[in-house]
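Reviewers of the previous submission asked for a worked example of the structure-prediction workflow described in the proposal, so we include one complete record here. The input consisted solely of the amino acid sequence. No template or homolog information was supplied to the procedure at any stage.
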Amino acid sequence: MYKRVLVATDGSALSEQAVNAAIDLALLCNAELVSVTVAHIEPVGYFEGSLMLSQRDIEAAQEQSDHAARRLVDKSVAAATARGVRNPRAVVMKSNQVAEAIIAAAKNQQCDLIVMASHGRRSLARLLMGSETLHVLTHSHIPVLVLR
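From that input alone, the workflow returned the following structure tokens.
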């Protein structure tokens, strides 16, 4: 069925449920698991939206963001390994375009399924906040399993 499953996580309770479902699916299909999260790129200049911070403070903030992202995917890989998933991998993408980064990671890792959670926002909240899941769902060329 599926050979390599990508699961997108942001550390929220819903995405943790998606990680558990992706682990279950990987075990069921004897598939590999790729856990991905997207670390935002900190703005470095005023015109990019940065506050008046020193270059050192900006670099420290980026390092902290990268470290938090790495811990997040490493936690997913540890859970997958403990449950017996073969060859779990952790990927941190650096981008401010979350959905595009998830799609790119799935392509780069040659995944044949993307698993992710949806917060289920409706109407004005979805319009104002956007939906990364909806963007992945409508732009991905591989199947997407959305969990709520």
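The longest strand covers residues 86-94. We consider this example representative of the routine output the project will generate in years two and three.
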